[in-house]
User: What shape does this take?
Amino acid sequence: MSIDLSSELKKEQDKNVSDYINKVLSLIEKEEINEEEAGWITKETVDGFREHVNPGFLSYRKTVTKDGQFAAVEWSDNGSCFKDVNGKEYIDCLGGFGIYNVGHRNPKVVKAVTDQLKRQALHSQDLLDPLRAMLAKILADITPGDLKYAFFTNSGTESVEAALKLAKMYSERTTFISTTRAFHGKSLGSLSGTAKGMFRKPFLPLIPGFRHVPFGDIDMMRKTFEVCSSVGEDVAAVILEPIQGEGGIILPPENYLKEVRELCDQFGALLIFDEVQTGMGRTGKMFAADLYEVVPDIICLAKAFGGGVMPAGAIVAKEEVFKSWFENPFMHTTTFGGNPLACAAAIATIGVLIEEKLPERAAEVGEYFLEELKKAAKGHEDKVLEIRGKGLMIGIEFHKDETGYDVSKGMFDLGVLVAGTLINSKTIRIEPSLTIRYEEVDKVVSTFKQVLSQVSV
Ligand SMILES: *Cc1c(COP(=O)(O)O)cnc(C)c1O
Assistant: This one.
């Protein structure tokens, strides 16, 4: 009789994996965890990141936290706050870089997703699915101008990819103008539009035809259009964020977006607004396009679109443009884009934004927040260069990167999560839930004030 060792080993391994899975599932199931469980979760998380996710995250967390706080593990959330496994509560002013516009686990969004989940989670992809049609109709109603047809995605990057492909197909041109400090995502197509050299360099050459011009410089934009046209490389589209997010909350100069629109019209190019971060009420209007009264040909959405519950994104385009995909709707597809759970989340999210007048609230609370932060920074002009923003999209720019990191660290210690931006760490961003209470705003401001007086220049 021979014993099959490898099969014994396999059995043993399967049992270990099963036991581990059951332990994890039992923790997911729990409403409250005890201290021992919290300790186990923290250890498994830190070990898991070091051995199997990417130890670089641990090094990064150490640069933005004090003492042992790099190992803080998030566990539950509600309203404008989340808690770590040890029960410490944080006011979330970062929120996945602006995904919690309707708050963390907004009950109406959770209900819609749960109700949908009980009936059908994903779709066959072949039959007609109802929620996609209904969400597309809602989007046509709430997006500016004559934006009419929607294509659904799972992320911001995918929305940008879809917009670029649609613009190419519509225009039969291959030149794109993007801007310095832009962030459009990190897939090869969207990265072509993104500006930061550090993220682009290892992957060059990206898709050909991209030119970057300084954001806000209309003369450069005009000259680039003229040059492209004169050398026979006509511009398919200009892609930009109406307010740059990752770039450090950069507001467009007066009339800039209107003038870009005019240039696009003059040269027969499309205008793509990447509203992945500025959309869904963040800037004080449903879309930043409304704020600046400019109608793009294609708008890109994601981040807060799924209500902070489901990953979801979309592009919405004018019929004239989108009809390039009528003949063959399979020209650009994604398996999960527009799935029933994501659509349920997005529909409920838009409902909450409208019913609770959250864009208006963002404008009002944002103005108060901005003023209070400016007051708190008085006397610290040696550290703080500028505080700016629109609605609840606020940036605090320091003279030095280190000050930004030190302020983030100090605020995290005191239970407020803010973050340096990926592209410009001199600026920390404040992008809380649009439902944030005034008391919470006051706490963030007083924390900022306290920390600012403690950090060195
Ligand atoms: C975050 C962001 C993206 C990328 O979205 P992902 O969901 O991370 O792929 C694209 N554009 C803008 C303006 C963003 O802020």
Q: What stands out?
A: The pocket of pyridoxal-5'-phosphate is lined by residues 97, 155-157, 160, 183-185, 241, 245-246, 274, 276-277, 302-303 (CB under 6 Å).
